[in-house]
Give the backbone structure.
Amino acid sequence: MVTSEHSVASKDVPSPGAGPLTPLTHRVVRRVQETSDVATLFLEPLVGDRLVFRPGQFNMLSAFGVGEVAISVSSAPGEGGPLRHTVRDVGAVSHALVRCEVGDVIGVRGPFGTDWQVTSDVEGGTSDTRDVVVVAGGIGLAPLRGALYEFVAAARGGGRVFILVGGRNPDQIIFHDDLAAWERDGATVMLSVDQSTPQWRGRVGLVTTMLGDAGFDPRNSRALLCGPEIMMRFTARALVDMGVDPAAILVSLERNMQCGIGWCGHCQLGPLIICRDGPVVPYGGVVERLLAERER
Amino acid sequence: MTTSVRELLAAHEFLRGLGDEVLETVVGCAHNVAFEPGELLCVEGASADTFYLLRRGRVSLEVHAPGRGPVVIETVEPGSVVGWSWLVPPYRWTIDARAIDRVGAVAIDGACLREKAERDPAFGYALLTRVSTHLLARLQATRVRALDLYGAGHGH
């Protein structure tokens, strides 16, 4: 949130290309309250063009006077329009961001990190022959939204997309309109919650329990996972047990990103600097071992 | 053409790969059933003499909580099993199971199956191994859910 005393006057606006450590000021042009503690901010730069990004990358968002936090981009390059970030209120900075209103100004640095590798798959034509399995837990659907937008669009020419979403309860599932649109466009959409409500007629249970019923071909699938790390660990193991190649599973890791460019080392995980080598990494190999490793 | 109970059992995930001999043994204890939405398959505290291999429709497993009514703990989908209490004394349901949709299932007489398992240890071992596999998967899912994965702290 940017209050009036923190607002940036136009003469203070850094110019685009000022460097990766300089936030570019963006104005909140629209705000959607997704759940009680999650909001999507639609951002336009005060100066210059919109940022160019790939699905899965993140930006460092500044609530001026409060701090900076890493948030994945939740828009898709192909849909145009303002840059979207979906933020959950879990700390001081995210609290300030979630409380932003239309007209407020925040800082944006980025985009940083690796992506879901949508472009190579779609352009390479392999999406026609491989099932795409997307498993999201909670707000983990936000970093996947851009990839889903591209995958579902590409699948209109063939190919299958399976979207499995888990949430704490029905009220915490985000992007209902997108999920409905993707289902209309041919994707298989399955939802499951941990805690039911009297109105909920859908599944109640762990997100992994949907894998066996989804109907994808494990030996001809790639999988994208995003959510709490334990959820990703169990989901990845279940997928491998079903026959999915560990190298075909991508996970999005979350650590304490600060500089965004691999300088400060705050987000180190074993041999990986997550802001640079991640957030999206292949599950097979080093990440499979790291996710199972006990922290000391 | 009506599908026989044997064919329904052979196609069900729970018995897949167990072989014809096991299948024939189970067929003698099984019959086809259907439930309308809202109908109860099991009632907490009642005698657990049957269990169900779900073929179609969704079933909710519920606990009745004072002041809250029925609380859905979990849902069970086609290909899975409703009811384990037939297997161990005192053979009494510990939970309600309610059809959410129109449900089709194969009902299996638990006492009949227990008797056959006691007479034929090889059959009993195969059956218990399969039951344990399903129970372990459900237990593991329940353990992970107990962590409240999506609670406070998960940001992205």
User: Anything to note?
Assistant: The first strand of chain B starts at residue 30 and ends at 35. Chain B touches chain A at residues 13, 58, 60, 69, 71-75, 77-79, 100, 140-142, 144-145, 147-156 (CB under 8 Å). The beta strands of chain B are 30-35, 40-42, 50-56, 59-65, 69-76, 81-82, 96-99, 103-109.
